[in-house]
Amino acid sequence: MGFETITTAWRGQVFTLTLNRPDRLNAFVLPMHAELRAALAEAEAGGARAMILTGAGRGFCAGQDLNERKQVADPATPAPDLGQGLRLRFNPLILAMRALPFPTIAAVNGVAAGAGASFALSCDLVLAARSASFLQAFARIGLAPDAGSSFFIPRAIGRARAAAMMLLAEQISAEQAEAWGLIWRCVDDAALLPEAEALADRLASGPTGSYREIRKLLDAGATTDLAGQLALEADAQAACGRSTDYREGVAAFLQKRPAAFTGA
Ligand code: T3D
User: Fold this and answer.
1) pTM, rounded to two decimals
2) Among the listed residues 264, 196, 185, the one whose alpha carbon sits nearest the alpha carbon of residue 50
């Protein structure tokens, strides 16, 4: 599929989506939203079993492209309805990421700011290059956190650190993000893509249905009570119990051999 603001690539059942506006640190523009949604649909329709999300050039994503908002610098223009933009574009994008039926890996190659940080954090596993950073840029320009930041960040690192990130709006290094538990791992810059690809290959040959249920349970657990979560676990286990991969997993254990999961 031909895109202008992103590129996509397949390697076996691993789908890689690269934000591709390097001169603007891959900031979001209107067409990028449509292209991202089309790419996610392509990944799902093509039977992806893992996805890598990364950025071209020295940035991961600098959030909303502020050139698209330059009219607000003129006090004579009416105020924009930013809520509508979130409802129509960013919110469905983040929900679409979480609803994918396979695991996602963010390979954060540089700064992830504003909604760009939220986009990275919507992935299941976040790997970051040592030179990368995370910035809750919103307060710098008089905005509030969006695209899931105020959901993902306090749950990952606690309110105290989340409040400091959001109120002070300072860049957090990848090493700090790892130490706080905001991301899974920080790796040397040169190792970022090889590590992301190795991880994606491993996930793509794993029990995809099991991963799908794990991801759903993790999301539900953020908002459900114990009785509700136990009920969801029973539903998830019922679904896994009907899978071919479960039969294969048990057979492989009993036969003392590695399991050959197919995702079925
Ligand atoms: O509006 C709505 O719909 C509401 C939704 C909002 C969601 C959001 O994401 S709001 C937050 C928007 N993002 C920002 O406020 C971040 C703005 N960028 C920065 O603060 C800095 O660029 C960074 C800290 C991210 C990186 O700094 P640095 O020094 O490494 O790079 P730089 O020199 O600032 O940026 C390089 C180029 O990218 C530069 O262009 P130039 O001068 O070389 O022609 C810069 O203008 C451009 N750029 C970076 N971020 C954006 C951008 N251009 C447009 N929009 C950006 N967000």
Assistant:
1) 0.97
2) 196
